[in-house]
Amino acid sequence: LLLRPLYSGTTELPPYYQPWMDIAQHVTELIYSHTLRSHILKMPLLNTQFLESHRELRLAHLALSVMTMGYVWQEGENDTVKMLPCNLAIPYWKVSQHLGLPPILTHADAVLANWKKRDPHGPFDMENLELLVTLPGGDSVRGFFMVTLLVELAAVPAIKSIPLVINGVQCGDAETVTRALEEISQAMEGMTDALKLMHAYVKPEVFYGIIRIYLSGWKDNSSMPAGLVYEGIQAEPMEYSGGSAAQSSLLHCFDELLGVKHEENCGAFLTRMRNYMPSSHKRLIQDISLQPSLRGFVQQEASELLTEAFQLCVTKLTALRSYHINVVSRFITVPAARARQLRSQGNSSQEETVSRAPTALEETGTGGSGIMSFLKTVRDRTRDISMPLDNRAMQKSTNGARPQNTQYTTHQKHLQSNTL
To answer: Mind naming one GO cellular-component term on file for this protein (predicted)?
Structure first.
């Protein structure tokens, strides 16, 4: 399943790992008291061999990730560190290798693995969800991660419908493909509706001025131009990107299904972000990319209903990306302009939260992309695959004719088993 709670009745690791959890569950307080680094330096070097299940490994990765982000950014961008101590770096590296994830906080950690229901039998909504571990930002950091989680939840019907589309294309079943595409477009609209909750649960000045630095990485970041040494792993520093919406597998799946072709630089960044996803997510995206072209099937069938269903998916995905641009403008672009204005006036007062924001990230996302130009280019390339109805489709839908499908034959391989 796309979203599955990691833990059944517990949010703890085996008792041996309590030194990790004692710190991970108090990262925010330790950052504010400027004592997180000293606590981590005193932490014992623990062996990862007692982490027996996938869920324990994911919780361990989450705990080690928030400790790492706090350790690096405790004093802001002007007092970063060059080395992650071995008692944190070695187990973090080993857990990351087990999971196929990088040793940095990812979308898969902060969002997909960082929630539980307050009432296990209650609804999956904002009021009944809470974080397992948190970072500075108070209610806004909870809101940011939980709203993002609800966007993922809204996408579940679409992800479940993708194998139906692929099998329908392989079998030449236009009716099945049409119904599945309608389900996908409806889910995309639900994702946009969920994203709108960001305005209600996250304060832009808190996101920009406090939260954002703790999601930042040490690649393409002028605050840490050399990267970070993971002590006990290798002597040379390593570079990893911070958290990014591009690390969610959802839009990658939609792009591969619909046939969105991204501009070279944008495409290279998106492809690199797949290295920050769980292995099963990467495999699913790859499997979708290897299937016969949906867009080619729609063109060949020339069915009005099928073309409309495909076009509606393109429209809804474009709308989702446009709304994301709106969110980024409110939560990054506008606060960044305010921060620059304060600096130009010689006002670095802590009274305005945005003035605490790192200057290194003003023009980029936490993942390292030039954020607005990137998002607009990706949105425009999505719009480029639009397929307006033509006369052939109108005529064919009217007379009911259906030519024999020779290009798309039944294919035994399907994606049902490759769940998120």
So the answer is: cytoplasm
